[in-house]
């Protein structure tokens, strides 16, 4: 599935070389990605919704991909720009493999590359409209970092993009610890995704969880969370609100 970002109209007088290929506005977007370190590696979660504006148009969009042997990438934001980033990374990994020197790019190197790409495009006033999460493990060293559409980046024990930055990170700060088992890590991610499902209009109840360890990477089949919608705050959410609604 290819998603076309918004393009400026073709100028037939100047020819195709002068066409602008900027993403003027994100058209098809994905929402939050949440990731954390656990005792054996990295866990990452994202739903499969693709919103066309405010309409949940696509419900089978995979937003987590393996990068090389040691890294896992998740993205929120414009899906077509994410596809462009994956094309850049395919070329990077292919070039690295061509050396055939027994070495391969680790997650720290891939994250550093992404920070340079995002900042470079921002300086051209032609940003890639994504927030990215890059996690991985190499030689026993776990790595987890994030980079925004303007190149702001950091690494941490747990990260989130989009609404997850506001709603999931407080949960992670309170409940995360470095000796999390796989089962406890999955439960913590599911708790975060359930809160996002309740509060983020762009979230859908169809998600995947990916893990990467020294043994390799797996991405789960899509599944849904059990939900409870009978909270009193959900029954009449506008009661007492001030305004014309």
From TrEMBL:
InterPro entries: Ntn_hydrolases_N (IPR029055), Proteasome_alpha (IPR050115), Proteasome_beta4 (IPR016295), Proteasome_bsu_CS (IPR016050), Proteasome_sua/b (IPR001353), Proteasome_suB-type (IPR023333). Gene3D superfamilies: Glutamine Phosphoribosylpyrophosphate, subunit 1, domain 1. It holds the Pfam family Proteasome. Keywords: Cytoplasm, Nucleus, Proteasome. Signal peptide: none annotated. Component of the 20S core complex of the 26S proteasome. The 26S proteasome is composed of a core protease (CP), known as the 20S proteasome, capped at one or both ends by the 19S regulatory particle (RP/PA700). The 20S proteasome core is composed of 28 subunits that are arranged in four stacked rings, resulting in a barrel-shaped structure. The two end rings are each formed by seven alpha subunits, and the two central rings are each formed by seven beta subunits. The catalytic chamber with the active sites is on the inside of the barrel. Belongs to the peptidase T1B family. Non-catalytic component of the proteasome. This is Proteasome subunit beta. It comes from Hibiscus sabdariffa (roselle).
